[in-house]
Amino acid sequence: MCTIEVNNKKSKCDYRFNRPLEEKEVRMLESAVNDVIALNLDVKESFVSRKEAGEKYNVSKLPENVGDKIRIIAVGDYDYCPCIGQHVSKTSEIGVISIISTDFNEQTQILRIRYKIS
Known about the structure:
By secondary structure, the chain is α+β, with helices and mostly antiparallel strands.
């Protein structure tokens, strides 16, 4: 599971995980994400039925009134997710990601990563 929220001031991703990240891992992750962004991958949309989306993707964050066709955003062959938001057409348009903090909730097993885009 991954939940992503992107805002102008700060953004976050929540992941199901089994432990906190060490600082070395945070820096490796930041570098890996920026390497993928630099690949200049195409960001494309396609549409699938609500049923197919529910079978393949986490649709829990989509509004109930989204309709029978769900928009899927593909980032190259790297990632696919349902989304109703705006997107760049190429990953290089994103900029550079800087991870500003992480925390881990042992009870929920959720790792939160906060980052900014410059």
